[in-house]
Amino acid sequence: MRDEELAGLVVGDxxxxxxRHRLQRLIAKVFSVRAWFADTYHRSADNFAAxxxxxxxxxxLIAAVVGAGVGMAAVVFRLxxxxxxxxxxxxxxxxxxxxxxxxxxxxxxxxxxxxxLVVGLINQFVIPGRRPGSVADxxxxxxxxxxxxxxxxxxxxxxxxxISLGAGASAGREGPVVHLGATLxxxxxxxxxxxxxxxxxxxxxxxxxxxxxxxxxxIAGVLFAHEVVLRHYAVSxxxxxVIASVCGTLAGRIFIGDVAAFVVPxxxxxxxxxxxxxxxxxxxxxxxxxxxxxxxxxxxxxxRTILMPAWGRPMLGGAAIGxxxxxxxxxxxxxxxxxxIALHGxxxxxxxxxxxxxxxxxTSVTLASRFGGGxxxxxxxxxxxxxxxxxxxxxxxxxxxxxxRGLYAILGMGAVAAAILGAPISTTVIVFELxxxxxxxxxxxxxxxxxxxxxxxxxxRSFFHYQLETRGTVLADGPHRYFLKTVMVSSFMSEFxxxxxxxxxxxxxxxxxxxxxxxxxxxxxxxxxxxxxxxDPRDRRKVVGSVSHVQALRAYNRRLVETSVEEHR
Length: 569
Fold this sequence. Notes:
By secondary structure, the chain is mainly alpha-helical. The protein has 4 domains: 3-52; 58-255, Clc chloride channel; 277-469, Orthogonal Bundle (Clc chloride channel); 479-568, CBS domain Like, CATH 3.90.1280. 69% of the residues lie in helices and 5% in strands. The protein is globular and about 90 Å long. Its main location: membrane. One of its GO terms (cellular component) is chloride channel complex.
């Protein structure tokens, strides 16, 4: 063996291949690459076919239509409030405290009283259920598959709220705009005959557009729709919701202008030694949020025990609001001007403390009296006042370390609102977009997290979820508990060709067709039966079908799987 061949073996070189072998390897590589391209093509084609089958292109187009439509509806809603306010103040602006101060006391009392009478008549004769809609109704509709929001209820609730806020009722406009947007979106979803998943996404699109157009906060609108309404961040829902939010924002900016809701000076954290103060502010904000929700609950439950005509309830509440407004006009209406003054440090310590107490009482009376309105803006208002008051005290105790009181007002605004709404992520972003800056991110995240955590420790739920639980809808325990209480036996039983008679009426192995899945599973467990007779709810001896234990478990598992797929797709 030659030295060259021996050296080649030592270093591991392969002997030269014949030309025929090299050609075979080249052909194999070509076919391998071709197979890879073919596999990639088929996989992409399958993905695109699934994309089209899920009606995603149509969903994107519907989202754009919903976003633009809801954005314009939010603009009309806002102009309507101003028009009603013009009737007694001669001005449609949100900054009208100087005009209220010039009014005789009887005008300030009469405005919410007369508005309350009109709202009461609408509640009595027009609105189903005799109460305006709210964000809680939207959350419930989402849990039910995107349906359940009546178009008539949505429009009449919007009219009731426009009159309420324009007349001076102490509540927010963003919650009603969310309800109106969701109502319009649900109507379009029903018209297009979307499946439950698509209907929920379009419902969330209406919510995102309403928030974006009302606050001029597109990012916050997207996050609020995911965090509060859908309660997940699935990628398949993200694109249409963003499209709707952008369209809603554009509609608002075209007709109202591209300005932040609150224009505040540039605030900066003075020293990192203030971090303990920010944490303490979170504790104080939690106390205000807890007190606010307790007061809302107490006033609501008290109002339910008072028997009186539905038309008279808002008028009586309007009189109480007007009397408080004579002495503290800052609590009337939506309250954006008073919030703005607090963010600029324009109130004294005692004034802000008084406004916190008065606003809590006035908003509780407003909602308990069945005026239209929400808790979003009042929560921002209370937070700004709480933070401003805390900032004054901090400056007195540590004059060389404390930042401007306006900075504390911004932090308090986010903390109280996040705790009440149960939406710390979207509320944090809303505050950023409302004030036009992200420089306070560390302090805001700290105060929001502490306030939200402590509020949850005491109440266990947001105000929206409390409202749902008063109607028998519990979502806080997860989707499995909701399915057990809402899925009916009639949806998964086997029907008989004709009704039969039950031989033994005392036999415990039976359920009614309108019993829940939870009831059926409990009867299976108590009787040990493999199958149950399903009886007519109106005739306990008439059997209309049967249901097996396996059918009940399959119905339960199927809905859990559908929810899991939707949340992770």
